[in-house]
């Protein structure tokens, strides 16, 4: 009996050792795969046969990696620190806020350079060097842990409508092993999506925002009470389109129809019912050629009039101000699309699209609304600031739309 117990204990010890070794190997393999993906994206000349061989040889490892924890304790701590650092204190003077910003500057990782930022331009060129039906961009400055089902639906909808598109998510937090795993289900299906740490100094170089950003990095600018990440996102989308051209969409936008037929377009959020003239534009969807002069004007307006204390001042209100000042006398080639194109439902009415019909009249309304959206709408802005707490109910307008425009469809009916 004693010998039997010893043998049993020895077997358990060996099994535990093998299990622990396997976990260490998989974590190490995950790091190799993630860093290999960075290397291949940065290179513009990757032999197709070698790429295919590496892809096949790693599939077995990748399927096992999906079962491991999504991120390390270090990544969690850094994400929480970043989230807290980006929120300035309320009810203080401008001078006090600038002093706070200068003290906290070292925590604003997005403002700093590292090895990944130095590779940014090469990675972009390498990624878009492959055959792309269209160039899409998103930004994500929040922690990777907050990139959830609702955001994945937006990404999926791009590829449902544009299966051969290329999407770059400008994000330091998603450009990690954690982010790689979030996007892995799409990568496994062959879709071209990659998170990249942006090089803000490069993006803003030789633009009107270069001096503004230089002063910000030195701690000489008032960041305002609104999270700096939100305002940086407003500027980054303008700069990346100015440098590379393409389509920018927010992570709370569901694409319904191809955007490839649109050029140099911006959408109206609201319109005067009598005059049929727009009253406000929005920057949640921007479609522009590289170096378009209107983008230069937007960036210039941002640098000259930045105010971090007024919501929307550096975003929707900014694009509205610039185009309103231009009036009808301008030489810029661009188009303003009606609200039905991108913003068919305003933020204060969006909740109605999340509710399932309970009566025959409500069912008829859902069918009529779907018919209208499928005919005139390129996509629907979900206004996550107001709808993120809502559940997408089965049978609702949004539920029906995302069921038709998702690829993986694992997160449709989650809040």
TrEMBL record:
UniProt cross-references to InterPro entries, sorted A to Z: A1-4-GlycosylTfrase_dom, GlycoTrfase_DXD_sugar-bd_CS, Nucleotide-diphossugar_trans, Put_A1-4-GlycosylTfrase_plant
Ranges of residues in domain Alpha 1,4-glycosyltransferase: 288-411
Residues that span the membrane, as ranges: 12-34
UniProt keyword annotation of Cell inner membrane present: no
Signal peptide: none
Pfam families to which the protein is assigned, alphabetical: Gb3_synth, Gly_transf_sug
Gene3D superfamilies in the cross-refs: 3.90.550.20
Keywords linked to the UniProt accession: Membrane, Transmembrane, Transmembrane helix
Protein name from the UniProt record: Alpha 1,4-glycosyltransferase domain-containing protein
Organism the protein comes from: Canavalia gladiata
């Amino acid at each position: 009996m004693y010998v039997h117990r010893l043998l049993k204990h020895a077997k358990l010890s060996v099994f535990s050792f093998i299990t622990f070794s396997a976990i260490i190997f998989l974590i190490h393999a995950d790091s190799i795969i993630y860093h290999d993906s960075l290397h291949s994206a940065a290179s513009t000349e990757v032999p197709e046969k070698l790429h295919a061989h590496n892809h096949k040889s790693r599939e077995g490892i990748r399927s096992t990696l999906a079962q491991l924890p999504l991120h390390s304790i270090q990544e969690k701590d850094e994400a929480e620190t970043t989230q807290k650092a980006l929120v300035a204190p309320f009810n203080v003077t401008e001078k006090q806020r600038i002093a706070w910003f200068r003290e906290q500057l070292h925590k604003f990782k997005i403002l700093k350079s590292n090895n990944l930022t130095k590779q940014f331009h090469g990675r972009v060129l390498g990624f878009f060097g492959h055959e792309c039906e269209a160039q899409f961009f998103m930004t994500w400055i929040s922690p990777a842990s907050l990139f959830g089902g609702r955001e994945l639906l937006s990404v999926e909808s791009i590829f449902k409508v544009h299966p051969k598109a290329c999407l770059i998510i400008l994000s330091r937090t998603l450009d990690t092993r954690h982010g790689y795993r979030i996007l892995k289900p799409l990568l496994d299906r062959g879709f071209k999506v990659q998170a990249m740490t942006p090089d803000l100094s490069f993006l803003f170089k030789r633009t009107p925002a270069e001096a503004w950003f230089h002063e910000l990095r030195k701690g000489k600018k008032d960041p305002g009470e609104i999270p700096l990440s939100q305002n940086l996102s407003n500027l980054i989308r303008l700069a990346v389109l100015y440098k590379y051209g393409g389509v920018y969409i927010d992570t709370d936008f569901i694409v319904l129809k191809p955007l490839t037929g649109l050029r140099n377009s911006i959408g109206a959020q609201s319109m005067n019912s009598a005059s049929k003239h727009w009253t406000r534009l929005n920057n949640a969807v921007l479609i522009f050629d590289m170096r378009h002069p209107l983008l230069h004007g937007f960036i210039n307006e941002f640098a000259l009039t930045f105010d971090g204390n007024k919501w929307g001042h550096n975003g929707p209100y900014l694009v509205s101000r610039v185009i309103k000042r231009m009036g009808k006398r301008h030489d810029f080639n661009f188009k303003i699309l009606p609200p039905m194109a991108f913003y068919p439902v305003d933020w204060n009415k969006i909740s109605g699209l999340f509710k399932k019909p309970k009566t025959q009249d409500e069912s008829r309304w859902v069918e009529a609304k779907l018919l209208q959206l499928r005919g005139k709408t390129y996509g629907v802005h979900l206004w996550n600031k107001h709808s993120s707490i809502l559940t997408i109910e089965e049978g609702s307008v949004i539920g029906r739309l995302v069921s038709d425009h998702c690829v993986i469809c694992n997160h449709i009916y989650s809040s």
